[in-house]
Structures are given as structure tokens and as C-alpha cells.
Amino acid sequence: MKIKSAEFATSAPDLESCPPERFQEFAFIGRSNVGKSSLINMLVGRKGLARVSSTPGATRLINFFTINNEWSLVDLPGYGYAKIPVKMREGFQRAVSEYLAQREALSCVFVLIDARHTPQQLDLDFCDWLAVNGIPFVLVFTKADKVKAGRLKKNVDAFLAALAERVEGEPRVHVTSITDGRGRDELLRFIGEALE
User: Fold this and answer.
1) Which class for 20: exposed (0-12), middle (13-18), buried (19 or more C-beta within 10 A)?
2) Within 10 A of 17 (CB to CB), how many other CB atoms are there?
């Protein structure tokens, strides 16, 4: 798939404020500081489309982007960042869980996992929640250039093994790096196939 256009559409604080469901939606989510905004920008080939911040937890709304005037990319607030006030964090979590569980246009959730780390409980719990709620998801391991190939494989395999103890069936896996563009074509191909 070629990206011909990528435009910011709107931001919504909750499910009720989300725009009408015009296109199939592909949502991106992960722990704060997993490199979500950078990955989105690499994917669409536009440096400043999603806001990149040095402060984890910068995405605080459900952000919609219209791609090629045929599908929507949805940037969801990251999870697990402790410095956001509890009430605010609860609000994000409610908005995100309602969007994920109730949005009919949602085709797939891309769950971003930092490839440098061994399995994190928060990521496993989130994938478990998606599976229990019947929400289709794929795993996207980020920052693959920051870890040696052997360690990368070990971390991915360990995550899949830990997930297999909780979730039936193995999700699709993509390995990405914004530094060398790894995984971009595969992700776009996956979205293109889903659109067909």
C-alpha cells in the first residue's frame, strides 16, 4: 500500500465524542514511551503527523487520522504511566476501553511492545483483556534496532510463550524500527489486506 495522504481528522476525549464511523479503523496503543507516535509517523511517511514528546504519556485523547481518504488510523493514549494523576488516568482507561470494546468500525488493534525488554505484566494483561473481549489484535515490537538480534528473538519468543499461557492462538507479530524502517511495508501490507 502506498500512502498518498495522511490528515489529522479530530481528537475525542471519550467514545461519545468520536467522529461518525466513515472508514475502517486501525488503532495503535502501547505502554507510554514505547515509541507509538514515532512509529505512526514512520508508517505514514510524515514526520509531524502524530505528536512526538520526550515526556511519556503525552497522548491524552483518542486521535483520528484519515489515510488515503479510505481508512482511519487511531492513536490511543498509552497505558501504564504513573505520573499522570489517578483520576485523569482512570478517565483515559475508561475512554480507551469503551472505544476498543464498542467501536464497530474498529478492524484491528496494534499493540506496541518495547523489544528491548522481557515480558511486562502490563502488556500481557492488556493483551489478555483484548482476547477476553474478542477484540482482534496484532503485536508490534518496537525499537528493534536498539537490541541485538539474539536478544530480540529471545524477548519476542518469551513474550509469545507468556501470552500462550493466557490466550488461545498466537497473534500475528511484526518487528519494527523507526531508525531503519523495518516492518513498515509489512504493516502497510497487513492493513491493505484487511481493507480488501
Assistant:
1) exposed
2) 12
CATH of the domain at 129: 3.40.50.300
Count of domains forming the chain: 1
CA contacts within 13 A on the Cβ side of 128? 12
Which residues, 6 or more positions from 78, have their beta carbon under 8 angstroms from its beta carbon?
Answer: 29, 30, 31, 32, 33, 34, 36, 56, 57, 59
Which set of grid coordinates corresponds to residue 5? 495522504
Q: Which three cell numbers stand for residue 148?
A: 541485538
Mean pLDDT per block of 10 residues along the chain (196 residues) reads 93 92 96 90 88 53 94 88 49 81 96 96 93 95 96 97 92 96 97 94
